[in-house]
Design a protein that fits this description.
Blueprint: E1 18-23, E2 28-31, H1 33-39, H2 43-46, E3 76-81, E4 87-99, E5 102-112, H3 118-131, E6 136-141, E7 146-149, H4 169-172, H5 179-191, E8 195-202, E9 212-222, E10 228-237, H6 239-257, H7 264-275, E11 282-288, H8 289-292, E12 308-315, E13 330-331, H9 338-345, E14 349-351, H10 365-374, E15 378-386, E16 389-398, H11 407-444, E17 455-462, E18 467-475, E19 481-491, H12 493-511, H13 516-533, E20 550-558, E21 563-569, E22 575-577, E23 583-585, E24 603-607, E25 613-617, H14 620-623, H15 629-638, H16 644-655, E26 664-671, E27 679-684, H17 690-705, H18 711-728, E28 733-739, E29 742-749, H19 769-776, E30 779-784, E31 789-796
Antiparallel strand pairs: 1-2, 1-5, 3-4, 4-5, 6-7, 6-10, 8-9, 9-10, 11-12, 11-16, 12-13, 14-15, 15-16, 17-26, 18-19, 19-20, 20-21, 21-24, 22-23, 22-25, 25-26, 27-28, 28-29, 29-31, 30-31
């Protein structure tokens, strides 16, 4: 028998055991201080509660049930839940408590189970940390001397304990424990503020030749009296983690920084910008010369005699590396070398160590001399291949960085090279298309401007990305000239082809002598038809890459009346520079671009003094300096220039600071005025009797000009045209002769009906007038005027009279 004050074996009370008294119903009537220490519950919380409420129920299938009536001798092992909810392994003894009338209560003794002593766990954890953990643990005293350390840590593995304990940690690892690190440790000692995850680079005692990255954490150690005993430092080698993270960041940067343009050289330089200083100390990028021109290389391995063109080279400043070839210079690689080998089997080459034993160095003496001068000790050669073809090779050099390249570096270089190769191939394809588009465009634009006397003309055409800009100078009837500048939206073959069609249509419309606003109206209808014809059959048609729209400015200058008529379709207004230096835009409404529905086009007439400059240009001329582009252009045009070409060059010099990505077109025309003595005109009533008078006046005028050789044919022409005007048109008739580069004869009447050239049969009595005129002249045609029409003819001047 035991009493409530005895231990489970009837011995004296055990102070380490918790005593709990239960009534006959199993409810707690007494809760000792030891029970409160063991489980955390206070007496007031537990009295009246069943003790079984503290039992942790096992998971189904793993039951080790506590007997309803535990044995009187010995005990059982149970799991109880403490006040924080955590399980506590305990041993349970239960004895009846006798009262005056028999057993009315139970006394229960609880003790922490053997092996669950916190001191045991503390010792086990400490032993593991100091002998087994891969994490470096260093216990330092207040002088930062090593008191204990983890002998299993990779940083000191193999280092004897007597070489560590008692030494200052700064002496043990001087490259890891720097001034900054020591300052942090002393700050922890003085303030108690811990340091978490401070990253430090250095060489540990176990690997003095290798650079490692360590994550350092430190916290202060103290006793129960509040005295500082030292500091504990945890060191985790995070070299591989950081290297992996840096590799991912590098690949991510490469994906966003490389291939941002369709320029082959720029793409190669973006590779160099990305890797130098992070993967390599220097890098060179060489592409095949054929690729640089836009040609597609043959698939598969590359022959050793291929010609390269240097696309990029970069090196860190401290490398002292001098490139063997300049950017854009061609070269070839010696055979056999790692470069020719990697291009032969399309596999990269890693050269961890470059020394005199590398026999291939003798096959490439120029590059070898440069590498030796820069003290290159490790190399990687990576082919640049995309879509089944090889485009070139990237060479990585290490000279300043002590560690040689390894397989991880090669993997990263291979990934970056693959991404770069796609950008290079895109640039190559673009170069090929751009070259073809430029060739086509040059064949569609005028090789030289036609001869005419109305204006002195100079032009500048600077193609950007093979856009659809065009220009024209078109001689018209009556010694007039049309000046045209236009720009098709987009670039590439489609834009160039559309430009060619619009230019051909402009010439056809100009031959009809239509007014500028009418010309633009017809071009607008035409480009809408182009868009309808080119509409894709499928929603995802790759040819449907851009809308078909264009801008255009069409201006006609008449040197007889010194009048300029301008119409615009979404194009910048021409600038008019008067001889006195005043510059202003032509007064012509902008109108919508061609192919866009909008208001009808309008033409405005302006009188210009002789010697004025007319400047037609595309948006690309002023867009590069958007804020003051047009103001600067006006200043240049206002200055005096010896000739039109000088003015044209001056505009280009002032407006463009570098190669423009857009097409730039500038057409400058200095106006002339036809002298009065080169124009003769007469007005006659509509009477058949004036036909002879008209012939006589024309004959006298030709004699004054020294063109009597043309008298006969001119008399016939005047007779036929005046006769037709009298017959078919009411009102007065105007005859005008103009001596220009040819002899121009014009007959104007008040009828808008245009004559038609007929081919009469032999039995017909009439209808041969216009046929005769056509045979006697080089050119003839009809243009409509405000009141009617003008029929004009041109005859070449006799030799020596031009």
């Amino acid at each position: 028998m035991t009493t409530p004050g005895e231990g489970p074996d009837g011995d004296a009370p055990a102070t380490s055991q918790a005593k709990v008294v239960l009534d006959a119903d199993g409810k707690i009537t007494e809760w000792s201080a030891q029970a409160e220490t063991l489980l955390g519950y206070r007496s007031a919380e537990m009295v009246g509660q069943p003790l079984t409420s503290l039992l942790v129920r096992p998971e189904p299938g793993t039951e080790t049930a506590v007997p309803q009536a535990p044995p009187v001798s010995g005990g059982c092992r149970v799991r109880l839940r403490d006040r924080s909810g955590l399980p506590v392994e305990a041993e349970w003894w239960m004895r009846p408590c006798l009262g005056a009338e028999g057993p009315v209560a139970w006394v229960v003794f609880l003790a922490r189970a053997r092996g669950a002593d916190p001191d045991d766990f503390d010792r086990a954890v400490l032993d593991a940390l100091l002998t087994e953990s891969p994490v470096g643990l260093y216990v330092l005293d207040t002088d930062l001397r090593v008191v204990r350390f983890n002998s299993a840590s990779p940083g000191v593995r193999g280092v004897r304990a007597e070489d560590v304990v008692g030494r200052r940690v700064r002496e043990l690892a001087p490259t890891v424990v720097t001034d900054t690190t020591e300052h942090l440790l002393r700050h922890v000692l003085s303030t108690g503020e811990p340091v978490i995850d401070f990253v430090q680079q250095g060489r540990p005692p176990a690997d003095p030749g290798g650079e490692h990255l360590f994550s350092l954490s430190a916290f202060r150690l103290g006793n129960s009296a509040g005295e500082t005993l030292g500091v504990a430092t945890l060191a985790i080698d995070v070299t591989e983690r950081f290297r992996y993270k840096e590799g991912l960041e590098l690949l991510n940067d490469a994906s966003t920084r490389i291939g941002t343009t369709l320029d082959l050289t720029r793409t190669a330089d973006e590779l160099a910008e990305t890797v130098v200083g992070r993967v390599t100390d220097a890098v060179s990028v060489d592409v095949f010369d054929s690729v640089h021109r836009g040609d597609a290389p043959a698939p598969g391995p590359v022959p050793s005699e291929v010609t390269f063109r240097r696309a990029a080279f970069r090196a860190i400043e401290t490398a002292g590396f001098e490139a063997a070839y300049a950017i854009g210079e061609t070269s070839s690689y010696g055979f056999p070398t790692p470069i020719t080998q990697c291009l032969a089997d399309l596999r990269p080459r890693l050269i961890p160590k470059v020394d005199e034993g590398c026999e291939w160095l003798a096959h490439d003496p120029l590059r070898t001399d440069r590498m030796r001068a820069a003290r290159v000790h490790s190399l990687m050669f990576v082919p640049l291949a995309a879509r089944g073809v090889v485009l070139g090779v990237a060479t990585f050099y290490r000279s300043v960085t002590r560690e040689p390249f390894d397989e991880d570096d090669l993997t990263i270089a291979r990934e970056i090279a693959a991404h770069t190769a796609l950008g290079l191939d895109n640039a190559r394809r673009y170069t090929r298309e751009r070259t073809a588009a430029l060739v086509l465009k040059n064949s569609l634009l005028p090789g030289r401007l036609p001869a005419q006397n109305a204006v002195d003309v100079a032009f500048s055409h600077l193609p950007g990305h093979a856009g659809g800009s065009w220009y024209d100078v078109i001689p018209l009837s009556g010694a007039r000239v049309a000046l045209v500048v236009g720009d098709v939206a987009g670039h590439g073959m489609r834009a160039v082809a559309t430009m060619g069609r619009l230019r051909a249509a402009t010439h056809a419309l100009a031959a009809l002598d239509l007014a500028p606003d009418e010309v633009l109206a017809h071009l607008d209808d035409l480009i809408v038809r182009f868009a309808e014809e080119g509409r894709p059959l499928a929603a995802n048609d790759p040819l449907d890459v851009q809308p078909t729209t264009a801008t255009c400015c069409y201006a006609v200058y008449d040197p007889v009346g010194r009048r300029l008529v301008v119409a615009r379709a979404g194009h910048p207004a021409p600038l008019l520079a008067h001889p006195d230096g005043h510059v202003a835009p032509a007064d012509a409404p902008g109108g919508p671009p061609l192919g866009v529905e909008g208001l009808p086009f309008e033409a405005r007439r302006t009188e210009l003094p002789e010697g004025s400059l007319i400047a037609l240009f595309t948006e690309g001329l002023v867009r590069q300096c958007r804020d003051e582009g047009e103001a600067r252009l006006r200043r240049v045009l206002a200055q005096p220039h010896a000739n039109v070409q000088e003015a044209c060059d001056g505009v280009i010099y002032s407006q463009l600071s570098g190669q423009s990505e857009e097409d730039v077109v500038l057409v400058l025309a200095r106006t002339r005025a036809l002298p009065e003595d080169q124009v003769a005109s007469w007005t006659f009533p509509g009477d058949p009797a004036i036909v002879a008078t008209a012939r006589t006046l024309a004959d006298h005028q030709l004699a004054n000009w020294g063109l009597s050789d043309l008298a006969f044919t001119t008399e016939v022409i005047v007779s036929e045209l005046v006769t037709n005007a009298i017959r078919y048109a009411p009102g007065t008739i105007r005859v005008r002769l103009i001596r220009d580069r040819s002899l121009i004869c014009e007959v104007t009447d008040d009828s808008s009906a245009a004559p038609h050239l007929r081919h009469p049969r032999t039995t017909d009595e009439g209808g041969r007038g216009l046929l005769l005129v056509a045979q006697l002249t080089d050119r003839w045609g009809t243009r409509h005027t405000d009141r009617g029409k003008t029929i004009w003819t041109e005859q070449p001047l006799p030799a020596g009279t031009g």
